[in-house]
Amino acid sequence: MFKVFNTSWIKNEKVLDPVELIPKRISKFHSLSYFNLVCFMTMVILWGLLSTETLASQSDKRLDPLFKRLQATLSKVEAQSIEMTIWRIWVESDQDKVNNLMNSGIAAMGNLDYATALKVFDKMVAIAPHFAEGWNKRATIHYLQKDFAASIKDIKRTLNLEPRHFGALSGLGLVLMEMEQYDSALRAFKDALKVNPHLRGAKANVDALRKLLGNVQI
User: Which is nearest to 144 in space by CA: 55, 61, 41?
Assistant: First the structure.
């Protein structure tokens, strides 16, 4: 069984305005990396939903060998292909109603209609509380609405269901950066890289945070 990452180390600090608190070099870098992450994830998710293959979210038996290949490969092209396959598996439920909600929620996200997306993902987690990607999508919406406490709560639910969810672990790092919890953010990104060592955004964030914290150890 894959290691379940302990998220109890996350501090329950007051959420402050990241524009005022985060150093400009971190804030600027974070904004660009997060924008790229959202664009990439949306592309992967839409591709997965258009697939005709029957998939089964985090319980799919194909995930174990895929994660082994992801950690073993030295090819960037192969790693990207494996990542996309994992996302396609994660994103689809075995319930048509849940898949329809996923489509609707992603469409609302694409239109920047976060209020509607939140309502859709609220319904999704109520209908399918054991579907990890539902919690991850709602965590993303909470993040975009700057409700960081709610985002962390949903990320924890995601990781309880799928501890290998490198997207949720990276997302946790981004949330903690906004909360100025830099030590915890660094730990989250490092956990994400333990699962998927090919995450360029997580690697860049680790480097930036180490410089900020005076920890240059590789």
Answer: 41
